[in-house]
Design brief:
By secondary structure, the protein is of the alpha/beta class. The protein has 11 helices and 9 strands. Helices cover 48% and strands 16% of the residues.
């Protein structure tokens, strides 16, 4: 349980790939400490001179279910500040990773999962993968910045306001998912792409990553931080608690 990193393969033909795996049963809804641990793992992998590509993966029922709502309810404002900062650090770590990041997405990718995937360089997904921001149903806001990197602007707004999800096949049609494969082939597909990337010169890859980030039309760090201010406003005004108090009860 937690965040683990498998280092690059050893031997004469080193693959240059580090796999960072998230495992927080039952649904990979990360606690505050989990987001910071993920940020640390991705940053460390990117700094490793042996690494030329990072694969971000997850164990369990789905890729990521966002923040741990129960922790927010139990710990109050302190947990919200921690979750805001933790998500910010994890999303930033993926975006700023010194080498390309390939996200291998299976099952659900919700809330904070969109922040991770939206900031990754390439996305490979299983056929059962679904993506969405149920924030308005959870008393929160945020990650529209990252959803807008996956779908066109008006679709992003429709998905955000309705809390609906889209499939991996739909994102593939929009060009934001590289490949959609059967679930049992996901790991191999992600590693195949990662090996193709990692076959390039390591120093040049790092320069390429910095150059591509430098020409992005939107500053994702500033944009997401702006969104987080409204999450905090919803909390202090009582709106978030009102919505969270209904969380799970209507479904039940």
């Amino acid at each position: 349980m937690g965040v683990s990193t498998s280092p690059p393969e050893k031997g004469p033909e080193k693959d240059g790939i580090a796999v960072v795996t998230v495992d927080f049963p039952p649904v990979n809804a990360l606690p505050v400490d989990g987001w910071f641990a993920l940020a640390d793992a991705v940053r460390a992998a990117g700094r490793d001179p042996r690494v030329r590509c990072v694969v971000l993966a997850a164990k369990g029922r789905g890729f990521n279910a966002g923040v741990d709502i129960k922790e927010l309810q139990a710990r109050g404002p302190g947990a919200l500040v921690g979750a805001n900062r933790g998500c910010f650090e994890a999303f930033s770590a993926v975006y700023e990773c010194e080498v390309p990041v390939v996200a291998a997405v299976r099952g659900f990718c919700l809330g904070g999962g969109i922040g991770l995937v939206g900031n990754a360089d390439v996305v490979v997904a299983s056929e059962d993968a679904v993506f969405g921001l149920p924030e308005l149903d959870r008393g929160a806001l945020g990650a529209a910045t990252h959803l807008a990197r996956l779908v066109p602007q008006h679709l992003m707004r429709a998905l955000y306001y309705t809390s609906r999800t889209v499939t991996a096949a739909e994102l593939h049609a929009h060009g934001s998912v590289w490949r959609v494969v059967p679930g049992e082939e996901l790991s191999d597909a992600a590693l195949e792409l990662a090996r193709e990337i990692a076959a390039k010169d390591g120093e040049l890859l790092r320069l390429a990553k910095a150059a591509i980030n430098g020409i992005d039309p939107v500053d994702v760090r500033r944009s997401y931080r702006f969104e987080q201010g409204f999450t905090f406003e919803a909390s202090v005004s009582g709106v978030a608690d009102r919505v969270r108090d209904r969380f799970g009860k209507e479904e039940a």
